[in-house]
Amino acid sequence: MPVTNTSVWNTLAPRNMELGPQSGSTKILTHWRLIKGDDDIVWLILDRANESTNTLSEAVLAELDTALGDVAGMGAKGLVIRSAKKAGFIAGADIRDFRGVTDMREVETRMTRAHEIVDRLAALDIPTVAVLHGHCLGGGLELALACKYRIAVGDAKLGFPEVLLGLHPGLGGTFRLTALIDPIEAMTMMLTGRTAHAKKAKALGLVDAAIEERHVENAVRAAVSGAMKTRRGSLKSPVFGFRPARQIAARQMRAQAEKHAPKQHYPAPYRLIDLWEEHGGDAKAMQKAEIRSFSELLVGDTAQNLIRVFFLHEKLKSSAKGESGIRHVHVIGAGMMGGDIAAWCATRGLSVTLADLDRNAVARAIGRAAEFYEKKLHSGIERRDALDRLMPDFAGSGIAKADLIIEAVAENTDIKRRVFDAIAPKMKKNAILATNTSSIPLEVLRQDLPFADRLVGLHFFNPVAKMELVEIVAHDQASQATLDRARAFCGTIGKLPAPVKSAPGFLVNRALTPYLVEAFVMLDEGTAKETIDRAAKDFGMPMGPIELADRVGLDICLEVARMLKEKLDEPMPEIPAWLVQKVESGETGRKAGKGLYIYDDKGRPKKASDAAAPSNEMADRLVLPMLNTCIRCLREGIVEDDDTLDGAMIFATGFAPFRGGPIHYARTRGAADIVAALQRLEQQHGPRFAPDEGWNTLGTNA
């Protein structure tokens, strides 16, 4: 056999994704292409021009309308809709079309036209098949729901994330999904924004088949011929055709929604529940109400601020692109933070060695990782592979192999320096040394380090699996290559990098500390901890400062507070004696089962139900010191711009997302109003509330 340069993989590459016949009648538009095969099945392929991901813009929908007209005249026996993008089917609507809109009537007109196009697809009198791979979200899933069959391929994930943008489905999802599957399951999907992977979607009846790529062509033929078995609706569906049944279920849904998304801040879940309660079973009425409700929500402050948060997320995410060259990570310190960092890196395909002087700590960390993988990874193979990549390392042999070493030992300068001294001679010449310090300036830690250019801060937040942000802490001797690799590493492990300068507390902890310390002062004044937490939650925080302090760890809070009080020339209350006593006695918070709250065996705080309601001033007293510090950090150049600061505070602390971030909230409320409020608090409580001079220029930095 002659030797050629053509590999078998190059030969098979065109078939790696089934995109219809290789030859036949073809029409190419800007974003879509139509291919009709000899079997008279038409493949309509979406490949949005100049974009890495398919989204539904007005232009894409207008071309779909044109394409559907062509299909009607082609004598097709069936229609297949599929994406040519490897990442997935359609990631939803193009959010750029929604940003900054203010005219509800204009939105309603645009949405009505979009519905007409999707309805045209649903009305075709031939079998229509959506082949779904990767992400199929929002408007993409709504388009798939208008097809008669849905086939999920491989790792497909289906869902409606609109609630995360302060919206509900707006392109037919509310009435098509509740008619297709169990209405309670349908509402749960839309109210939570959670996705369903292929097998789960098949079990729900959301898709008709869950297959591997090699079976796509046969599955399409089975659907078009009518041979594919389907399961539509559920035993519960007829019951919820009656309004009284929907009313009972709706009450329960509202109660559940209120626990996670208070109506005063997040109206979308309640509007969705209203839609289903009032119009469930009447598709035409529900469609009309959906368009109106979606349009009203879209122009509201909550949706526009959450859309802003979406773009903050995308901006941080884009800064994590590039190649880090990091394949092996060595983590030193198997406590809660170090162990969870190691476990997370292993889920993202990296080889990880985990070391600690305490062998039992390593064993506990591996145990926690196994529990995490059991919950989050969908197959036994994935769980096995992740555990194989996570290796206990009692001898420290991983140091010499690692591309990145992450130090996650106690928040103590001397301990961290001793670790650095021990590992520095064993590291590869191009390896990066990262510290997970939450507050210690890197200028302090780098002393006597022979390669300060390869030292960087990688400050993760707890819990690692849920908190997306990582502060990339720079110092004046860190090389640009090190910082670039650190950002790219964040992209590899699916985290958002926020570049900050080395300074006491960096950005997040420096801004968060005044918030927590003020809560401690209010405790000393006799205010119930439940009342303090409720004041913050009423403002929109995901949890109050007392519970947050327990979650962070009172030992960490104490160390950060001590360091900031010592290093910063800013007024700060005295550290309460009871905080020191609690830490010394081991009552360090949730991780110890007892801190400011006592925790049950599931890690939930036990709270008194009869605490007094917070006063109107309490939220300002807690939140404005945080905003004041954010303005100070901007003025001092700790963070380079408003967007990075807002994104960091939202994705690391959960700062009320519907407010768009602390700086955005300050601009919306008005600098003058905040300065006046700070001055009133300064008169009542002391100089720690003195407005920073940065407020004078806030209005000019928009």
Automatic annotation (TrEMBL):
Question: What's the catalysed reaction?
Answer: a (3S)-3-hydroxyacyl-CoA + NAD(+) = a 3-oxoacyl-CoA + NADH + H(+)
GO function terms (MF aspect)? enoyl-CoA hydratase activity; long-chain (3S)-3-hydroxyacyl-CoA dehydrogenase (NAD+) activity; NAD+ binding
User: What are the 3-hydroxyacyl-CoA dehydrogenase NAD binding domain coordinates in residue numbering?
Assistant: 328-501
The reply on keyword Oxidoreductase is yes
State the pathway, as annotated in the record. Answer: Lipid metabolism; fatty acid beta-oxidation
Q: Name one GO biological process term.
A: fatty acid beta-oxidation
What sequence ranges are listed for the domain 3-hydroxyacyl-CoA dehydrogenase C-terminal?
A: 505-599
Q: Which domain of life is it from?
A: Bacteria
PROSITE patterns, sorted: 3HCDH
Keywords from UniProt, A to Z, are: Fatty acid metabolism, Lipid degradation, Lipid metabolism, Lyase, Multifunctional enzyme, NAD, Oxidoreductase
| EC supergroup of this enzyme | lyase
Q: What EC designation does it have?
A: 4.2.1.17
The record ties this protein, via InterPro entries, to: 3-OHacyl-CoA_DH_CS, 3-OHacyl-CoA_DH_NAD-bd, 3HC_DH_C, 6-PGluconate_DH-like_C_sf, ClpP/crotonase-like_dom_sf, Enoyl-CoA_hydra/iso, FA_oxidation_alpha_subunit, NAD(P)-bd_dom_sf
Which family, according to the similarity comment?
In the N-terminal section; belongs to the enoyl-CoA hydratase/isomerase family. In the central section; belongs to the 3-hydroxyacyl-CoA dehydrogenase family.
* Protein name as it appears in the record: enoyl-CoA hydratase
